[in-house]
């Protein structure tokens, strides 16, 4: 009997063990992860040992804020107390494999140890550690009735690239200092280390420059418009220009410090000579064009004709004048202060999408071309870039621009951020220039994540699975020149912080895994399982994300007898699509999609929702039949 009981309780244990086997879902995927048997359970009193180092503040901050808040545990840092639950150790002799950002994380049934060469490694280790606990650990309020367990594991981890960036456009819409801090808080969870702030554009100048007060008195403000950016009615003279904002130099210092404590550099972008309408409106003498004093900061009305591609034809001259010495004095002042405010080694100077049609008409430009022997408008821009390069270098900074700076002859020391696909970056790397890859094809977070029938409409789409295909270091180039990769969140259509989050996640997970994890560790099926786990974590953390990956992909065409045929597929496996044509709301009692549909003759709407088992996971999508017909007939909407 006794023997029987033992066997019985062993079975129970095994069953319970199997049931509770925690899922390990770490994003980005670590270099090496070995699981053991058993789990560690977080006690109510957590004794922590840690090196006394100023840079440990935020490493411990993760425990003191995120862990203590959800679990209710008390965190006591005291190296003199015995039996630490969590130990942070800085290696006395460098563990070469780990570099400056790597770590080793060991979870045993008794406790957790994180070792690294530098505090940054401990910071990334603690982010991984949080992901080993149940998702509720990310709750913004205390959660009861949870066993705070983490599986026994041994992890060795370090990044593939040193440049792991996210760009946040704070010009098209202004985002407050606390929004930017939130953006940083979110990105560090996924081991990003570079925040590129796009600080200036046609829609607003966002950084205080002493001695140039109009940049922020005038250039930071515009008329507020809501709808589809790019199609807004021109602002009337009496409409208040009270929408916008800027960061004072103290704000910038605070943000730089906030980022630094979290092992993030901030790279400023001053986008010139195009995208400069806010500067031109503030100081019209910087323009080659007479009448620039009548311009206003753009509110989203049409100012460019894109019908001939890049560069566009400008309807108003949004450029700084390369033939005007005042422009270089202006840029010298700006770069002096920007260089002082941002310790990061690069200044991004933009250089993209610079229209040349006003330059073509300008006598000043014609005289410059004659004097300098410049034959084309690209060479005029290259002349400007080379002068700007000298200014930037004179401030002790490196010069970096979008890939248009290659046109007309690249400045000798320039680094290139490749956005028009990979080709500019490949070309630059082959010439021996440093490159950061951030191609529209994989890394543009402003693009729609699903069908435009439900997403806020913009001119291009980028689904999560495509984002995950990003490979920043193509075989054809010497990998030493590829500093890393970056995703860009332009905000023409992003009006608030919740939507900024929606656009960033989950595609930000995919880019994080691309720039951190070894190439051979990438695996879409495993990644997507982790994404779903992290949706739960973001829910707990109250961070918004897009569920678009669950929504159907629609295709429409005409049958041989001209009937409309609608097909649907899904981006991920294991989903069922339920639909209706009768305008009611489908659920899992409705017809399940099993192949091409021909809508009933007078139907006006196809409604679809995706399920995983019995759970609705996608959104209720209402697709007008007329839209499907228009697409089938290739009528552009
Ligand atoms: C860009 O997207 N114009 C760099």
Structure description:
It is a single chain. With 637 residues, the protein is of the alpha/beta class. The protein has three domains: 24-157, 2-Layer Sandwich (Chitobiase, domain 2); 163-518, TIM Barrel; 551-636, Immunoglobulin-like, CATH 2.60.40. The protein contains 18 helices and 27 strands. Bound molecules: acetamide. The site of acetamide (ACM) has 4 residues, from loops.
Strand order of the largest sheet: 8-9-14-17-18-19-20-21
Number of strands: 27
Instruction: Summarize the amount of helix as a percent range.
Output: 25-40%
Please describe the biggest sheet, giving its number of strands, its sense, and whether it closes into a barrel: 8 strands, parallel, barrel
Bound molecules: acetamide
State the CATH superfamily name of the largest domain.
Glycosidases
The total domain count is 3
Report the portion of residues in β strands.
15-25%
